[in-house]
Amino acid sequence: MNKKEKQLEQLTGVNSSKLNYYVELKKTTEEALKQNWRLEVLHQLIRDINIDMSIQDILDRTFVRLPQALPCTFMGLIVLNEGDLELKAVAPRDYCHVAHFPKHSPSWQVINSKQAMMFDATQEECSHVWQNSDYPEKLSSFVIAPMFERAEVIGVMVVGRSSEATFSTPELDFISHLTDQMAISVQNSRLYRQVSRTTKQWEETFNAVTDPIFLVDSNYNILRHNDRFTPEISRHWQKSLVNKCYSRLHGRTEPCPVCAMEEIKSTEEPAHRNWPTDSGVLLETYYYPIFNEEKKLAAFTIILKDVTQKTKMEAQLVQSAKLAALGEMAAGVAHELNSPMTVIIGTAQMLARDFESGSVENDSLQDVINCGLRCKRIIQNLLTFSRQDQMPMTDVDLNEQVRLVLGLIHYQINRNQIQIIDQLDPNLTMVNINGAQIQQVLTNLLINARDALNDSNQENKQITVSSFIRHDEEQSWAVISVHDNGTGICQDNLKKIFTPFFTSKDATKGTGLGLSVSLGIAESHSGNIEVESTLGEGSTFSLVLPVPTKANDEPPSNEVIDIV
Ligand SMILES: Nc1ncnc2c1ncn2[C@@H]1O[C@H](COP(=O)(O)OP(=O)(O)O)[C@@H](O)[C@H]1O
Ligand SMILES: [Mg+2]
Q1: SS3 for 459?
Q2: Are 215 and 225 in contact (CB under 8 A)?
């Protein structure tokens, strides 16, 4: 006999009496009212739960409302996660803690049977639960109901009470309904979180790109951008009155005459343009089509990339490759010249022997010999400078290196009406260095000084090369400084001059590598290059090298370093 038939039997059957009838009727009405009230509470709860609430928030909200429909002390939400149970949320929040759910635990029983069940909160059933001592009242019974996602159990909800009264059948039914509702809310919350996380990730990726990105529809409207503008776009952007790409990006009142998006409308393929702006910046612009579900062209992604530096660097690389080739050629020529020079000098020396010293012929031949020897020195220096092999560190007289370099390039410098003053300290000690590399540094510094003087209107053009010893607390340093009274360097450029490829000279003159390579060489000698410069007055570049102290006098004489 089912529940309804039983009730009818009691009200109308042979066992019924008037009193019975009224008592039963009253009970039934009360139960119906209670049921109504519970449904009302359930309804209010559904309204209370928002999609963006966390699982804990949902449980907290339910726990506040639930006592209106059903006395309860505690609620818990346990989810099935990769074959394990996890206590996801508890209300009150610190009521209890479970590290592990043993296989015989009530939660697992409910999951396996897929049926809501009532349990006595005996010691045995709850041995895996650690109850916070702030809640000394012991639970007396609890109901666990399964949460379903379609036919799959995704977890369980626990409702416990400490009062003696056990859960009635209508209460059990109500908890099952409530759990179904909770399952929907938990799934919604999870889906919402998943969607928000994906959106956030996508937005973060979009905004993290430092190049400007725009999303534009097929009517030129800008739908989205990542807030990265080049100075030129910023200007147009602020002035623009309409949200169209041609206005905001290009400052135009009509679509651009050869718009890449128009091209994509017919080809449906990505397009690419180079955009040289008025301010001298070169922007590479990529257009990518976006298709909707019906595979129709819906919008475009435009990505701009500033390639000014890259293009400049490419040009400079070509230039430095040319210079390297030139260097090799120069070395080849020097090598070829070496033998004829030896013959010229030898022959002149032999001839000179036939003439008395002091005679016109002898004097002329001495001139030939001296000039020949000078040429040989120049050739030798050129060969040393262009040598690409590894050079050992040796004890070297720094002044000698300065003289060698000056011998090689003083003609190029003097030719430009520049006076070279040398103030070399004769007491400079020997320094353990790679001679060829230090010559390379000095050449760079001298050529830079010459260029700075050529670019200035200074009448009395001078380069002063000095060498001296500087002492500080722990170390002595040999310094060679190259001072010029040329253009000087502005504060902005001063920060950049050691950056590879930075040059203020035009592409045929400068590579922007001189100082960066020189600094590399100085640092490989544990030294440094110091700069002092005043715009319009001149600059001093100092190569500072450590002098071995008596204590660590052991020079790393056979250490070999690469020529940069
Ligand atoms: N003595 C100097 N006076 C003024 N500017 C200098 C001097 N030396 C270097 N600079 C600046 O530093 C830049 C970088 O020098 P460098 O690395 O040698 O490259 P490059 O000489 O090929 O331009 C130069 O373009 C110039 O602007
Ligand atoms: Mg240079």
Answers
A1: coil
A2: yes
- Is the pLDDT reported for residue 492 higher than 70? yes
Q: Say if residues 304 and 285 touch (Cβ distance below 8 Å).
A: yes
CA of 504 to the centre of ligand 1 (A): 7
**Ligand 1: which residue has its CA nearest to atom 21?**
510
Helix (H) or strand (E) holding 159: strand 152-161
d(CA 157, CA 320): 74
CA of 169 to the centre of ligand 1 (A): 91
Dig out the tokens for 442 from the structure: 């000095």
pLDDT average, residue stretch 485-492: 94
User: What is the number of the ligand 1 atom nearest to the C-alpha of 488?
Assistant: 4
Side chain identity at 149, as an amino acid letter?
E
Residues 526-531, mean pLDDT to the nearest whole number: 95
Compute the distance between CA of residue 217 and CA of residue 223 in angstroms, rounded to an integer.
7
Q: So what's the pLDDT on residue 381? A: 66
Interatomic CA distance for residues 553 and 54, integer angstroms:
71
Per-residue pLDDT tens digits for 278-290? 878 889 999 999 9
Atom 7 of ligand 1: nearest residue by CA position: 448
Residues 6+ apart with CB under 8 A from 295: none
Mean pLDDT of 123-148: 87
* Mean of per-residue pLDDT scores for the chain: 87
Type of residue found at 531: V
pTM of the model: 0.49
Pair of tokens at residue 503: 């040059």
* Strands annotated E in 49-137: 74-81, 84-91, 96-98, 117-120, 129-131
Nearest bound ligand to the CA of residue 488 = 1
Question: Whose C-alpha lies nearest to ligand 1, atom 27?
Answer: 504
Residue pair 501/493 in contact (Cβ under 8 Å)? The answer is no
CA of 515 to the centre of ligand 1 (A): 7
Decide if 144 contacts 117 (C-beta within 8 A).
Answer: yes
For ligand 1, which residues put their CB under 6 angstroms from it? Answer: 444, 448-449, 452, 484, 486-487, 489, 493, 497, 502-505, 510-516, 539
Q: Which of 142, 129, 155 is nearest to 58 (CA)?
A: 155
Please give the distance, rounded to the nearest whole angstrom, from the Cα atom of residue 449 to the centre of ligand 1. Answer: 8
Strand 271-276 with 282-291, pairing: antiparallel
247: exposed, middle or buried (Cβ count in 10 Å: 0-12, 13-18, 19+): buried
Percent of the chain with pLDDT over 70: 92
Tens digits of residue pLDDT in 375-398: 887 777 677 666 644 567 889 999
Over the Cα atoms of the chain, what is R_g?
45
Task: Tell me how far apart the alpha carbons of residues 346 and 339 are, in angstroms, rounded to a whole number.
Answer: 11
Q: What is the pLDDT of residues 59-71, one digit of tens each?
A: 999 999 888 888 8
Distance of alpha carbon 153 from alpha carbon 35, whole angstroms: 26
Domains of the chain: 49-195 (3.30.450.40), 213-306 (3.30.450.20), 308-388 (1.10.287), 391-561 (3.30.565.10)
